[in-house]
Specification:
The protein is about 75% helix and about 0% strand. The chain is mainly α. It has one domain. α6 packs parallel to α11 and α7 packs across α9. It is globular, with a radius of gyration of 25 Å. It comes from Tetranychus urticae (Two-spotted spider mite). Keywords: Signal. This is DUF19 domain-containing protein.
């Protein structure tokens, strides 16, 4: 009797499991793709909240102690991991560009965060920023982001390369004009030089691949003179941006460039 009861119980469990399997259909490729797209969107949105703080955009006061720099290095590491995670959501030229951007970001972080001495040097340099440097830095990066965003959204022709290259050239000039160092600080604490060098570490590998025709200030002045209305609109803060700061325009621009024949660039 006990054997019969055991057999009945096993049979009932087997039937129940089979019924559950029939009720729960296997996920389709569309379901999997939709889940991946959702995960990618979540990662992008998370990254978007981190990049501006990591780049000190909008900060009234910059980190000026070893402890504050430590926290900022932790934030930089978080941004790096988040962007790398999102890189799995991209393909082709977008992924290649993002990888180059990540390599530059890693150089930037190592330049600041690789030792306590480098961290302390960075804190001392940021303490030497003159009045208005914080606001000037934010202004320069926001204008560059807007230039890249407009370019990546609207451009589908060879002029796009010049737009990207001259956005970087304009950033360097903007930092030179809108940031400064306190008079009591020596040359080793030059805040403007530090900021320009920092952006070069992050972006220059990308521009070096594209910008041989736009290396001089004069070439970009000629190029930008044909876009005066757009640049005036950006300077007046009229452009509305949505996405991850610098990263979204970079990905969109790379995607657009992939559609342009190499002979046309």
């Amino acid at each position: 009797m006990k054997i019969l009861l055991a057999l009945f119980t096993i049979s009932f469990c087997f039937i129940t499991l089979n019924a559950d399997k029939k009720k729960s259909p296997k996920p389709t490729s569309e379901d999997i793709t939709e889940k991946n797209a959702t995960a990618c969107e979540i990662t992008l949105n998370q990254t978007a909240t981190l990049i501006e703080p990591a780049l000190l955009v909008g900060y009234q006061e910059w980190p000026s102690t070893l402890e504050e720099i430590d926290k900022h290095c932790d934030l930089g590491a978080k941004v790096y991991k988040s962007i790398r995670r999102y890189g799995r959501c991209t393909t082709g030229l977008s992924r290649q560009s993002l990888n180059i951007f990540l390599r530059g970001l890693k150089k930037f972080m190592q330049n600041i965060c690789s030792s306590n001495k480098r961290k302390q040097d960075t804190a001392d340099i940021l303490k030497c920023a003159s009045n208005g440097t914080n606001a000037g830095w934010s202004k320069c990066l926001k204008e560059t982001n807007s230039r890249l965003d407009i370019t990546s959204t609207n451009a589908s022709d060879p002029a796009m390369v010049g737009n990207i290259c001259c956005a970087y050239s304009s950033l360097v000039n903007c930092i030179n004009t809108n940031t400064g160092t306190k008079s009591e600080c020596d040359k080793s604490k030059d805040t403007t030089f530090f900021l320009q060098s920092s952006m070069a570490l992050v972006i220059k590998d990308l521009t070096d691949l594209l910008c041989t025709n736009y290396e001089s200030k004069e070439s970009c002045e000629i190029h930008d003179s044909q876009r005066s209305d757009i640049l005036q609109s950006i300077a007046e803060g009229k452009h509305v941006f949505k996405g991850a700061f610098l990263m979204t325009p970079l990905i969109k621009a790379a995607s657009q460039l992939g559609k342009i024949h190499a002979d046309d660039i």
